[in-house]
Write a structure and sequence with these properties.
The chain has 409 residues and is an alpha+beta fold. The chain has twelve helices and twelve strands. Helix content is 27%, strand content 12%. It is globular, with a radius of gyration of 26 Å.
Length: 409
């Protein structure tokens, strides 16, 4: 019974459920927002590889965000959220409450493989000093007063060192998050650091275990790939828009205006658009579009373009189980260092969509990032609906049968 129930909601293997024989390991993303720097390299790489047109760029007046949100032409979107110290403390307190209640955890019944190497580990042994003097708060690597950072002699002495002020134990060679936080607080106390922070998050399609967009598609335009991802075949899409309304994350969208922007490069095969070899336009107006997790690159054993371009490994790609494990390890590190506001999103296979193929480490509640706190797939309540409809039918039959009892011919 549980097998059939999990075809509609709950943990399951979506590729096998879709009929793939001996599929490869399910693939997915782990987006660690705590190390995202908002460079938007992922956005650019996504548009370049998938030949997506530029769209509605502009300033909102409330953020550095100029692409505003996910859409038919923006399959990766970097959000900027400004927070004051009061909101940071509220997020931290909310996180403490989650930890006290017991946050949803990964299952521990299965044997745990060896801990993976740190995703952010880098070998800098062969790096050469560049002689660039860094003078801003939190940028100096000097740990002792009077000791200049390596490489500063070429352009002069560090002003902070020259003035006798300890710049704090922060910088590119320091990994102690607590010390870095204390140094940042000290800088804030002296008025040299703004009293706010930016939450920066690179959002993308969640590639749900139970995808509502796929469930409601009447043409088979959306399909489950052998990697467990959800892909749109725009050649089959009829533009009905059912998937747009069904997605609990607001990811998928119909492209309303193909002429809103142009893209550089060769015209997309089958688009029917004219090109002089340097500029092309997409002609698929009205067709639903979203991230495919670079389905074509997966066939070539390459990682998605956004993960390939990310300079901080904020976007990681691989087997979904490995991504879940890395997310859990990173969460434990942040909690151990006092960042109680850190939490995982999409890593729980018992949530309303059976877990997602895109896992996020957030530093505040999901609503702050524009994410639904409890997404539910359209088919989640079908067993309960059918059961109640069955009870109603049996009740009607029983009532009809009782109406004939006691009647005389």
């Amino acid at each position: 019974m549980s097998f059939w129930r999990h075809q509609l909601s709950g943990p399951t293997d979506p590729a096998r459920d879709a009929g793939w024989n001996d599929p490869p390991a399910r693939k997915g993303f782990f987006t660690d927002t705590s190390i995202c720097i908002g460079c938007k390299a992922c956005e650019v790489a996504c548009k370049e590889w998938n030949q997506l047109p530029m769209d509605r760029l502009g300033m909102t007046g409330a953020s550095y965000d100029n692409s505003i949100g996910l859409g038919a032409s923006t399959w990766r979107h970097v959000a900027f959220i400004e927070q004051t110290s009061e909101r940071i403390e509220a997020a931290r307190e909310s996180g403490r409450a989650l930890i006290d209640l017991g946050m949803p955890a990964l299952r521990t019944s299965a044997p745990q493989p060896a801990i993976l190497p740190r995703a952010t580990a880098q070998d800098a042994s062969r790096a050469q000093p560049q002689g660039i003097t860094l003078t801003g708060p939190g940028t100096s690597a000097a740990s002792e007063v009077g000791v200049a950072p390596t490489g500063t002699a070429a352009l002069g002495t560090d002003p902070a060192v020259e003035s006798g002020v300890d710049p704090g134990v922060v910088g590119p060679g320091v990994v102690d998050l607590v010390a870095a936080q204390e140094a940042a607080l000290a800088a804030a106390a002296t008025g040299t650091l703004p009293d706010f922070r930016w939450l920066i998050a690179s959002d993308v399609c969640k590639h749900c275990t139970h995808a509502a967009c796929l469930d409601v598609c009447p043409t088979g335009s959306l399909f489950r790939s052998e990697y467990g991802t959800v892909v749109v075949q725009d050649e089959i899409c009829n533009g009905c828009g059912y998937c747009v309304a069904a997605c609990p994350f607001g990811v998928i969208e119909r492209r309303e205006d193909a002429g809103a922007g142009t893209i550089s490069g060769v015209a997309r095969a089958g688009s029917g658009s004219a090109s002089d070899g340097t500029v092309a336009t997409r002609a698929d107006t009205g067709i639903a579009q979203k991230c495919t997790l670079c389905y074509d690159r997966l066939h070539a054993d390459a990682m998605p373009a956004c993960a390939q371009a990310c300079p901080t490994t904020s976007i990681q790609f691989g087997d979904l189980e490995d991504m879940r494990r890395r997310a859990g390890e990173r969460l434990a590190v942040l909690h151990a260092n006092g960042f109680t506001e850190a939490r995982l999103y999409g890593a729980n296979p018992d949530d309303g969509v059976g877990g997602t193929g895109s896992i996020f480490l957030l530093l505040d509640e999901p609503e702050v990032y524009g994410l639904p706190p409890d997404p539910v797939v359209t088919t989640h309540d079908l067993p309960d609906i059918f059961r109640k409809a069955g009870y109603a039918g049996l009740t009607m039959l029983a009532g009809a049968a009782l109406s004939f009892l006691g009647r005389h011919p």
